[in-house]
Amino acid sequence: MSAVQKPVIGRPPVTSRAQIEAVSFHLFATQGFEETTMEEIAAALDVGRRTLFRYFPSKNDIPWGQFDASLANFRQTLLDQPNHIPLFEAVHRAMIAFNRFDNEALPQHRQRMTLILRTPSLQAHSVLRYRQWRAVIADYVADRLNVPASSLVPRMVGQVSLAIALSVYEQWLDGDDRTLEEIFNLTDFALREYADPSKGNR
Amino acid sequence: MSAVQKPVIGRPPVTSRAQIEAVSFHLFATQGFEETTMEEIAAALDVGRRTLFRYFPSKNDIPWGQFDASLANFRQTLLDQPNHIPLFEAVHRAMIAFNRFDNEALPQHRQRMTLILRTPSLQAHSVLRYRQWRAVIADYVADRLNVPASSLVPRMVGQVSLAIALSVYEQWLDGDDRTLEEIFNLTDFALREYADPSKGNR
DNA sequence: TGTCTTTTGGCGCTCAGTGCCATTATATTA
DNA sequence: TAATATAATGGCACTGAGCGCCAAAAGACA
């Protein structure tokens, strides 16, 4: 597990993803996402606009921060689930673990999710990120069921899990005072009630 | 049920949504969505670029055609479901009805959905359309359960139903030779299996 | 023929995103 | 100390979506 070797030759970077993220968040929070131009962010960082696009492929990617990296954790968390618990339960637990944050990190996380889930342009872009997240689930499910990840059940579980997570976050951002974990529990319970065939005819 | 009264005074339109859609589809099919500029579409129609934006708010909206109008049907289809069948079943039936197409209309529909579901820019934009679709479901569920449409269960059912529909279309476009209805049945069955609490501990 | 109404479409602008490439800042080597 | 290799920088110019503004066009009707 070697750390990424940063090159010792060549001109050193003048900024970093973290710094860009911090400055951008500040601007987004004060004047809004759509109202903040890449030009302004570059100016605030005293960096060329062109340079920003080397750190983030698009403006829409800035709010996502370390999402890509945390997907690896998510994958591992799923693999860590014991095989003897039901699939639904394993996914449920992994989702909760993935969405657990320290109390100090929570306000920041809330702000990030508000930005992503309430800004139309970011909502749209987020689909492309969610795809990776769903793929992690689909891969796990495919593994457990010994079927291709592109088959019906793995994909359906990926889509449905995302649906659950989005429902949870909508509820959370809407002012529900419960913790994310509690809302996850509620939502998964509600899904089971909703889908329970024994509750109705046919 | 009065038809939309088209004004008899003023300059008559030089084109129509339907015509723009037809010409655009042809261009999208031959050279791809991203590779087709609004300029080209305008030229093909012999119309000003500016005019296109009066018929469609964005390039991304062109492939959606009559989606908005068909949402009204979807709402009605849900309301037409008998109240005595379980919620899950009612939503299931309405989704199938909403996605029933004549055999002649199917190839066109497949092409449209391929475009929407496989073009990154359209995938992203589609979220904004799905929101309306989910709202129709959430409203119906809220009505049946007598709770606010913004509460947990209606929203969760909206999200999960969308998840199901997307799974179905992915499977369909992936080459599954079954009909959309058959795949809907399969997918809903798989969801019930997945979520069934009696299948596992806890 | 003139007036009223509505659509059209050209013009000019903003902003995201991209290819190109000379410049800059550092470490290493001679 | 000076030359060199390397990698990041950032300016420039371009494309394409989208939008505000407004004069011109095209019919209906009096």
Query: How many strands, which pairing sense, and closed or not: the largest β-sheet of chain A?
Result: none
Structural class of chain A: mainly alpha
The greatest interface here is: A-B, 44 and 44 residues
Quote the beta fraction of chain A. Answer: under 5%
- The helix-strand sequence of chain A is HHHHHHHHH
Mean pLDDT of chain A: 94
Instruction: Estimate percent helicity of chain A.
Output: 55-70%
Remind me, CATH topology of the largest domain in chain A?
Answer: Tetracycline Repressor, domain 2
Please state the overall shape of chain A, judged from the principal axes of the Cα atoms: globular
Q: N-to-C terminal Cα separation of chain A, in Å?
A: 53 Å
What is the subunit arrangement here?
homodimer
Number of domains of chain A: 2
CATH H level of the largest domain in chain A: which superfamily?
Tetracycline Repressor, domain 2
Residue runs with pLDDT of under 50 for 5 or more positions of chain A: none
GO molecular function, one term (chains A, B): transcription cis-regulatory region binding
InterPro entries (chains A, B): DNA-bd_HTH_TetR-type_CS (IPR023772), Homeodomain-like_sf (IPR009057), HTH-type_TetR-like_transc_reg (IPR050109), HTH_TetR (IPR001647), MftR_C (IPR041347), Tscrpt_reg_TetR-type (IPR023851)
Keywords (chains A, B): DNA-binding, Transcription, Transcription regulation
Condensed summary:
Chain A contains 9 helices and no strands. Chain A is an all-alpha fold.
Please describe what this structure looks like:
- The structure is a homodimer of 202-residue chains.
- The first copy, chain A, is mainly alpha-helical and 202 residues long.
- Chain A folds into two domains: 44 residues, Arc Repressor Mutant, subunit A (Orthogonal Bundle), CATH 1.10.10; 129 residues, Orthogonal Bundle (Tetracycline Repressor, domain 2), CATH 1.10.357.10.
- The longest helix of chain A has 26 residues.
- The model of chain A has no long low-confidence stretch (mean pLDDT 94).
- The structure holds a DNA duplex (30 and 30 nucleotides).
